[in-house]
Amino acid sequence: MAQADLVNFPAAADPKEVGYRIARRFIAGKHMLHAGKWISYPETFYWTGAINYAHLTGDVELMQAMKGRFSKLTASEPQLLPIKNHVDLNMFGSLPLRLYQLTKDKSYLDLGLPYADTQWELPDNVSQAEKDWAQKGYSWQTRLWIDDMYMITIVQTAAFKATGESKYLDRAAKEMVLYLDKLQRPNGLFYHAPDVPYYWGRGNGWMAAGMTELLHMLPEDHADRPRILKGYRRMMKSLKQQQRKSGMWNQLIDEADCWAETSGSAMFAYAIISGVKQGWLGAKQYGPVARRAWLALANYVDDQGAVSEICVGTNKKNDKQYYYDRPRHSGDYHGQAAYMWCVNALLEGKE
């Protein structure tokens, strides 16, 4: 069996059971806000992951809880809906767009689609640099931080899936090629930013997951697919080499004495699991990498579904020690979300 490494896990690492704990933790979880004002991107992605888990497993109770929480947000907490002026805020649209896909309730489409559209609609009060990006056909929110390649990709691909309009997919692909050309290093990894020459785990994880999401959507004959697939495989080859004996990846990927970090490791595992399942990666080479990663990751989930050893939110800084010293939290939504991606990737295609 080509994907034998991705099935038959021991009970402690059973994806459905691990996913059950993590997804249900979200039901009673507090909001994780961006700048103390709006629903954050970690909460958005955790929420969507729980919805996808409920859909994959037929968990009606969980799905109703997710929809109920969203109804409360729009009816009672509308001030928490993100504004549409930043790459870390526009990504919110991916959540209602996913709900629209599953329910065909047009109110979700009407809420979500403007978040995708305004990434390419130049507002009045923009800088010259933002105008320059827009004139070249890119999002005015372009800033060449590797995080962007999930934030932009996820809402644009969600808009494509919801509407079938190819412009959304073409936008995301064009943007991804730009970031690959500008930021990918010869070893296949990515600096946190052009002026921060360190291979930060979760930053690279956003890039890995963004390419994965896009490759799921791009037709075989799409003009940008070969370039994106090349960048993806180049990164996966490097990640295979950098994986620790434990199965994890470190906070700074290439630093052997740095600590194992769960959110980035889960993002890498998600990208590799998907690659093996989709045939983008050789199962013989990469199946064992994915299995080792998931078995290791499962050890960091407690009985209440909280993931430990998650690096807190981290801005770029040209200081290696800064990354070593970042606090580690349990239950932080950055890691909770990434674990749900792994769970769902492992469950997809199963009865």
TrEMBL record:
<protein>
    <recommendedName>
        <fullName>Glycosyl hydrolase</fullName>
    </recommendedName>
</protein>
<keyword id="KW-0378">Hydrolase</keyword>
<dbReference type="InterPro" id="IPR008928">
    <property type="entry name" value="6-hairpin_glycosidase_sf"/>
</dbReference>
<dbReference type="InterPro" id="IPR012341">
    <property type="entry name" value="6hp_glycosidase-like_sf"/>
</dbReference>
<dbReference type="Pfam" id="PF07470">
    <property type="entry name" value="Glyco_hydro_88"/>
</dbReference>
<dbReference type="InterPro" id="IPR052043">
    <property type="entry name" value="PolySaccharide_Degr_Enz"/>
</dbReference>
<dbReference type="InterPro" id="IPR010905">
    <property type="entry name" value="Glyco_hydro_88"/>
</dbReference>
